[in-house]
Design brief:
This protein is of the alpha+beta class. Helices cover about 25% and strands about 30% of the residues.
């Protein structure tokens, strides 16, 4: 019975691997012209002479054809501080890099140091 269980386990493992590989290939080839969301992308930071930082952002519009407009508001805002920090409201298709910078105060320093 031990040999049978091992064969079944191997068969199930191979089936799952083949199924997962096929599913991953399908997900990579799915293309949506419209109806998808826009995701922010943190590109990095730049240190300013005064010790503050500018954080740099881009985005991925998951659509291949639809350019999306999202006004400043709940769907296009920062969680803390002012909602409008100069972020775009018109999003061109696909990946756009280094679109805007947002200033942040000096990080990591303790008050009074």
């Amino acid at each position: 019975m031990g040999v049978h269980v091992r064969r079944v386990t191997r068969a199930v493992a191979v089936t799952l691997i083949v199924w997962a590989a096929g599913g991953a290939g399908l997900a990579q080839t799915a293309r949506h012209d419209t109806g998808q969301d826009v995701a922010p992308a943190f590109e990095g930071w730049e240190r300013n002479a005064d010790g503050s930082y500018d954080f740099v952002f881009g985005y991925l519009n998951r659509n291949y054809e639809e350019q999306v407009d999202i006004a400043i508001g709940p769907q296009n805002a920062f969680d803390s501080g002012p909602h409008d920090r100069g972020q775009p409201t018109h999003f061109y298709v696909r990946r756009q890099r280094f679109i805007f910078r947002s200033p942040f105060p000096e990080i990591g320093r303790r008050p009074g140091s």
